[in-house]
Structures are given as C-alpha cells and as structure tokens.
Description:
The complex is a heterodimer.
Chain A: H1 24-27, H2 40-47, H3 68-76, H4 80-90, H5 94-100, H6 107-110, H7 122-136, E1 151-155, H8 159-170, E2 174-178, H9 187-190, H10 199-211, E3 215-217, H11 228-234, E4 237-240, E5 246-247, E6 260-262, H12 263-272, E7 290-294, H13 298-309, E8 314-318, H14 330-339, E9 342-344, E10 347-354, E11 360-373, E12 379-392, E13 395-398, E14 402-403, H15 407-411, E15 437-439, H16 442-445, H17 450-470
Parallel strand pairs in A: 1-2, 1-4, 2-3, 4-15, 6-13, 7-8, 7-13, 8-9
Antiparallel strand pairs in A: 5-14, 10-11, 11-12
Helix pairs in contact in A: 2-3, 3-4, 3-7, 4-7, 5-7, 8-17, 12-13, 13-14
Chain B: E1 5-13, E2 16-22, H1 24-29, E3 35-39, E4 47-55, E5 60-66, H2 70-77, E6 86-91, E7 102-108, H3 111-124, E8 128-135, H4 144-150, E9 153-158, E10 165-166, H5 169-178, E11 185-189, H6 192-202, E12 209-212, E13 228-231, E14 234-237, H7 238-241, E15 244-246, H8 252-259, H9 263-271
Parallel strand pairs in B: 7-8, 7-11, 8-9, 9-10, 11-12
Antiparallel strand pairs in B: 1-2, 2-5, 3-4, 3-6, 4-5, 12-15, 13-14
Helix pairs in contact in B: 5-6
The structure holds flavin-adenine dinucleotide (FAD) (2 copies), iron/sulfur cluster (2 copies) and FE2/S2 (inorganic) cluster.
One flavin-adenine dinucleotide is lined by residues 100-102, 155-161, 178-181, 186-187, 191-192, 220-223, 241-243, 245, 267, 298-299, 302, 405, 407-408, 441-443, 447-451, 453 of chain A.
Amino acid sequence: MTDKQPSKKPKISPKKTPMREQPPEERVNNYDEVPFGYSIEEAVTEAKRCLQCKKPLCVQGCPVEIDICEFIGFIAEKKFKEGIVKLKEKNILPAICGRVCPQEEQCEKQCILGKKNEPVAIGRLERFLADWERNRGEIEIPPKHRPTGKKVVVVGAGPAGITVAADLVKLGHKVDMFEALHKPGGVLVYGIPEFRLPKAIVFKEIDYLKKLGVNLYTDTVIGMIKSIDELLSEYDAVFLGTGAGLPWFLNVPGENLNGVYSANEYLTRANLMKAYLFPKYKTPIIKGRRVATVGGGNVAMDCARTALRLGAEESILVYRRAREQMPAREEEIHHAEQEGVIFKLLSNPAAFRGDKNGWVKEAECITMKLGEPDDSGRRRPVPVEGANFRLPIDVVIIAIGNSPNPLIPSTTKDIEVSKWGTIITDPQTGKTSKKGVFAGGDVATGAATVILAMGAGKIAARGIHEYLKTSNW
Amino acid sequence: MDKNEIIEKEQIAPNIHSCTVDAPGIAKKALPGQFVIVIPDEYSERVPVTIADWDAEKGYVTIIFLEIGASTQRLAELNTGDDIYSFTGPLGKPFEIENFGTVALVGGCYGIGGIYRAAKTLKENGNKVICFSEARSKFLLYWNKKLEEVADEVRYSTVDGSLGSKGHSFDLLEDNLKSGEHFDRIMAVGCTFMMYRVARVTKPFGVKTIVSMNPVMIDGTGMCGACRLVVEGETKFACVDGPHFDAHKIDWNIVSDRRKAYLEEEIISKER
Lengths: 473, 272
Ligand SMILES: Cc1cc2nc3c(=O)[nH]c(=O)nc-3n(C[C@H](O)[C@H](O)[C@H](O)COP(=O)(O)OP(=O)(O)OC[C@H]3O[C@@H](n4cnc5c(N)ncnc54)[C@H](O)[C@@H]3O)c2cc1C
Ligand SMILES: Cc1cc2nc3c(=O)[nH]c(=O)nc-3n(C[C@H](O)[C@H](O)[C@H](O)COP(=O)(O)OP(=O)(O)OC[C@H]3O[C@@H](n4cnc5c(N)ncnc54)[C@H](O)[C@@H]3O)c2cc1C
Ligand code: SF4
Ligand code: SF4
Ligand code: FES
C-alpha cells in the first residue's frame, strides 16, 4: 500500500444549480409562486455538490441544527424518504423554511463551499424534499409516546406555537392550541404573500399538526374570552407565541388620510382576506396607481411587490438609508428590482397631504444622507437641509416595523415585559416571570424570523417538558 | 371556538335582523358594549357587530344587524340551524359602568339593541336610566318593550313623527337639556352621523358623553390599524382602546373621511 494514487475528484460546479422561475413580466400579473423548485435531476445534481464534510460547518448556521449534511446525502443517493425523515427530526416546517429562511445569513453562510464559490443551495434542497413528500401525498406520522396525562395550551398558531405544539404532542402531552384569527399560521398566512409562500403549503403543515393530535381552536382571542389565569387553572402549562403584530406608524401629519395603510392591514387584506380575488372575496383593497411603500425590510418588499400584482402602475419604495443598509434579504430586493419596483433611497416622508375628500395625494419627503453609525452599527440617516421633494401618490403603505401586541400583558399584570413591549423570557427554557407560563418567537424577541421563532419554540418545548416532569420552576 | 349555530333568527324591522347564536364561551364573558367579529361565509369580510344581548346560562349571544353591504346580506341569508363560518369575541373594552346618577342612553338603528344591556346594568348599579330610541318611522323601531322593562323611561323620536317626538333623538335630547334637565352622563350607540350630532348637542352643556365608534375593522385585536381614530391628538385603535371614547375629544373630520373609504368597492361587491 505504498503507491499513492492521485485521486480523481469530480470537479464541483462553482455555482448553485439554478432554479427556474416565472419571468418578471409574467409574474407581476399573477399571484402564483415565483420560483418553480428543483426537479429530481436538479436536486440530485445540487446535492452532489455537497462535500459531505466530517465536521459540517453548515449545521452551526442553522438555528434548529438540522443534520444538513445527512439529508443532502440522502438526496444525492435518491433516498428521498429517508431524507425527509431526517429533515423532519429537527424541523417540522421544511417546506416553509426552505422558502423563506434567510439562508444566506445562516446555514449557507457557513457552508465550506461558500469560502471560494457559491455554497450548497441548502434551502432549495430542503424545499425540494418537503415538496416531494407533499406531492406524493403520503405523510408519515411519527409514533407517539404514551399519554402523560399532562395538558398544555399553546396561544397563537404561528411558527413558534406550531413548533411547541408538535414537539409536546409527540412527547405524549395533550395539546390545545388557540388562535385569534379565523385561520392558523400567523404571519405565514396573514403576512407573507402567496407568491412567496403558497398558503396551501401552510395549511398542509397545519393538517399534519392536527394528525399528530393537536386540537386547534381558531377565533379565540386569549386575554378576552379567557384570561391566562383561567388557562392556568385548566392546563398544566401555557405557551405564548402571539407574535409581534402591533404596527408602527411614522407619526407624521396626514397619516390617517384614506389610502394610508399599515403593512399589516395591506397584507392582511391581500393575503388572509384574499382581496386579490375581489369581488369573489368581499374584502376590498385600494389598488392605487402610484403606490409608495415606506421601509426597507422583507415586509416592505412584500408590500411593494403586492402593489404591482394588484395593478399599480408604479410601485415606489421609499427608504431612508441606502441600498446596502436595507434589512431585506438580497433575494427579495433582487426580485423586487426585477419586477420594476422603483427605489427612492435616502428619502423619508415628513408629511402626507390629501384631497378635499380625505384621500392621500402626495408625500412630502426629506432627502437624507448617511452620517455616523448608530447603535445598530449602520450609518445613521440625517436630513439634508432644504432638499425636500414632493412625491405624487395615491396609496401609502407604512412598513417600518411591528412590536408585540399588548393585549395579553395588559390583561395579565404579572407577566413582565421589556420597555419595547416584548415578554421577558429565560433564553434557556422560555420561562416568563409567571409560574407555568412560557413564551417564545416574535413576542419575546420582537419581529425576527420564522426559523428563530421555531428555534425558540424548540427551546420552550424542552423547558415545558422538563417543568411538566419535575414541577420545578 | 364554539360551533356558532344559529338558534334563532328574525327580521325585527325592515332590513334589520336579530340573530341568536350558540356561543357559550362568548356568552360567559360578554359585558355591555363589547362586540364580536362575524364572518358569514368563507368569502365574506370580517364584520364587527355589537353584542346586543346574551344568556350566559344557555350560552347564547344575540346580535342585531343592518343589511348594508355584501357581507351583512350574506349573514341575512343564513337561517336557524346554519353554522356561522366564524364568530369571534368578546372584543373591545366594555362600557364604563358605575353609579353615575342619571344616565341618558341614546340608540339608533343597531344601537337600539346596542344600549339594551348597558341600560340593564346601569339600572342594576343604581342609576336612573333614560333611553332615547330613534328611527325614521315607528315601524323601524324595535325592542321597545325590552327597553321599557329595564329603563326608568324610554323617549321615542321618529323623523316622520309617527311615534314620540318628531325629529331625531339628538333634537329631543337638546330640548331636554335646554329645558334644564340634568344628566350625569350620556352614552350613544348607532350610526356615525347620530353620534356626532349627540356630541355637538351635549358639548355646550358640559355633560360627559361617550360614543361607541364603528370604524372599518379587520382583525379587531389591534393588529392592522384600520380602525384608527384620533382622540385628543393621539392615534387610538378603536378595537382595543375602544370602541367607546369621549365624544368631545374625537377628531370627527377624520372619522367621517375614513368611513367613506370603500364606497366604490362596496358597491361592486354588492353587485356581484
Ligand atoms: C410580511 C412579512 C414577511 C416576512 N418575511 C419573512 C421571511 O421571508 N423570512 C423569515 O424568516 N421571516 C419573515 N418574516 C418574519 C416571520 O414571519 C416572523 O418572525 C414569524 O412569523 C414569527 O413567528 P411567531 O410564531 O412568533 O408569531 P406570528 O407568526 O406572528 O404568529 C402569532 C400568532 O398568534 C396569534 N395571536 C396573537 N395574539 C393572540 C391572542 N391574544 N390569542 C390568540 N392568538 C393570538 C396571531 O393571530 C398569530 O396568528 C416576515 C414577517 C412579515 C410580517
Ligand atoms: C365596534 C363596532 C360595532 C358595530 N356594531 C354593529 C351592530 O351591532 N349592528 C350593525 O348592523 N352594524 C354594526 N357595526 C357596523 C358594521 O360593522 C358595518 O355595518 C358592516 O361592517 C357592514 O358590512 P358589509 O360588508 O355588509 O357592508 P359594506 O360593504 O362594508 O358597507 C356598505 C355601505 O355601508 C356603509 N357603512 C358601513 N358601515 C356603516 C355604519 N356603521 N354606519 C353607516 N354606514 C355604514 C359603508 O360606508 C358602505 O357605503 C359595528 C361596527 C363596529 C366597528
Ligand atoms: S432551517 Fe433554515 S437555516 Fe436551517 S438548514 Fe433549513 S434553510 Fe438553513
Ligand atoms: S458545509 Fe456545505 S459542503 Fe459541507 S456538509 Fe455542509 S452543505 Fe455540505
Ligand atoms: S381592527 Fe385591526 S387594529 Fe383595530
């Protein structure tokens, strides 16, 4: 065994296997999903780019520690069933994360291939497996533990609540879930548009949750129909996953004119209430010819792109910093640009003016320049004296952020909240200041991401399980 | 959370319906002045409607609604035994109720039902309760007996003079105030125009006046901001901060503009 054979490694493509998508000029006229997903061949080709690292770095970038290397290995061997089982051990919403996770900041950022070339398209492969399973129609229900006799209630059917419910029901606890709206899913259903995340996928995941044995009750606003103390008298533990749904406004003159929406209202009308199918669905939305969206995050991109699909002639994004500082995912910015969203950068509305019937007709904007970095490390935008301009518009969407809804804390005095209104939790267990009550997701962190909400759900599920076993607080 | 089966439905006046729904969870918690959000079927809007009456023991909730646009029309088409697609509540803050002294409650259109339980509870709290019930004509009034049973007095006004004083409730109220009658508090439920006029009438007399605002709403939980009003220069969400506000502190100009926002769309959705 002396002679070393020069191993002939197959050359790895420097780029991700591309994913086909609807051309921009076509997709602005429909509400269908933009990317088509990988075919089996494309998925296998992409999976083969993975080096199957001994110590995979990618996993460190995933907040729920998916065994990325292994599930990709199964795809490369065309063992899709084994792949999906592996994936679902850690993530019960792969079809969703594969679509909306900021992969470039997480798993793919760490991937070793990314050092020199493009990383493995982990998100796309995750999506592929989940879609493969869903399209096949046979969803495996994992075996359940023996019933423990413990009862848990989950408040809020967003990603955090869904994760907690799934983990606890699998451990044999009885789980009831209460959702304020008439449909479960949280932001996945009322916020993120159909063209980015088809709702049928979310509802399939909810069906799966019900098959696991979770009892879901919609139309139930906790804090109103039942207090947290009442829940504690009926259940052994409570999880609050109520999200960050309170919209911020700019607090400038004219913000209550007709035609000025919060992003939440605009997206809820469009998505949850299906205003894009008006008048079949009865909820109206003002379509607008020139629509201005204020903000630079994912939410703003979703609004600006929705406006185009609703028929706006011009969809203008007004953002107070520069493009590099935009918090939105690169992919979203890119899609918005391709579709023709006009970016008015370094601009900030100072007032809105209306016509005599109270309809918004123009925005008075201030031109900004970048100054010293602020607390977040981003350069602070400062107004340029005397450089105001007027922007004629007929719809405005304010997409500058959300904070947690105060409904539950305001009706439950012994749950401690921070000065930002977030519920204070122990990061190791999800425990709040109130015995028996856990929380996680956007309600604890402020508006964040789907996968972080799920990660928080995993931690809280462990915390709750431990508490149910030991009764130690 | 409940099955929302319709137990009883009745047209109590032309275009005005009363509908009793099996909703034990809501019936147990409801307080005067709170509302529910109703979605008659999958395609409809989320419609906010005041809880007019309830029976905590039987688990029933009664609403009074006007057939206005597409969604309330759809609701009117449902019958006893049908399940309502979605019925969420109780929402909003209840009326502030204590022993004020003499209270005038003004109700018009759905608000006649809207003041009934407030009258009952105010009476139980030791107040002298005078209800003002108004409509265009006598045949559009309803729940007269129910109101008479709980209030010390019910004063009717009709625009055509077919019952009680001729004109609007706020005209009668103004006459009463001018003739020196004293009220410690006035509460009004009904259409925006009526509530606005009540506010104008009571202002010079300095009587604290509470109105039950009915702006466009979607979620009803403080998530969308559609229901925002300006009260003393501050933006408030009617669904969670209200719906009851001090009538003399509301910016009424913004209210009337925001009401008209969807006029055109509402006509389209009704035609289809
Ligand atoms: C438009 C938009 C686009 C986004 N895009 C992305 C993206 O591309 N990628 C990404 O990772 N993240 C994205 N996010 C963020 C992500 O959606 C959230 O971080 C995530 O949904 C938070 O999950 P959650 O479970 O904590 O809360 P939510 O998803 O907000 O769910 C909370 C649920 O609780 C319910 N609830 C609230 N109060 C009560 C109550 N009192 N009683 C009963 N139920 C109640 C709500 O109705 C809601 O259904 C986006 C957010 C928005 C708004
Ligand atoms: C807290 C609250 C409590 C309410 N309680 C009741 C109630 O107990 N009974 C009831 O019948 N209604 C009540 N309303 C009003 C009710 O929600 C609306 O009438 C309903 O949304 C109309 O829905 P629609 O889809 O049928 O009509 P839409 O198509 O939405 O409206 C049709 C037309 O009617 C006008 N309109 C809508 N609402 C009103 C109104 N309140 N006053 C005057 N014009 C209006 C619109 O501007 C439009 O022109 C309440 C509203 C709120 C916010
Ligand atoms: S869940 Fe998100 S971060 Fe984790 S592997 Fe999947 S795409 Fe990457
Ligand atoms: S780091 Fe990249 S190459 Fe290595 S196992 Fe993970 S995905 Fe594959
Ligand atoms: S109805 Fe949405 S915030 Fe009040």
